Amino acid sequence: MCVGLPAKIVSMKNGTAVVDATGARREISTELLDNVExxxxxxxxxxxxxxKITTDDQEETxxxxxxxxx
Length: 70
What we know:
This protein has 70 residues and is of the alpha+beta class. It has one helix at residues 55-69; strands spanning 5-13, 16-21, 24-29, 41-45, 48-53.
């Protein structure tokens, strides 16, 4: 099973983005997605944005991850 984590795009440049994933910032590739911009939420797997997600999706994922940590 693969695990993707939600992250918010902070900035973008030349097919890469800096994202914030629960406070941790990292650079990822956005080459697989069209029409993403700062402020959007994406699902990240292995350093690549694999899907654009809604704010509701992000909140649900965060809730599930918090439950797993408890």
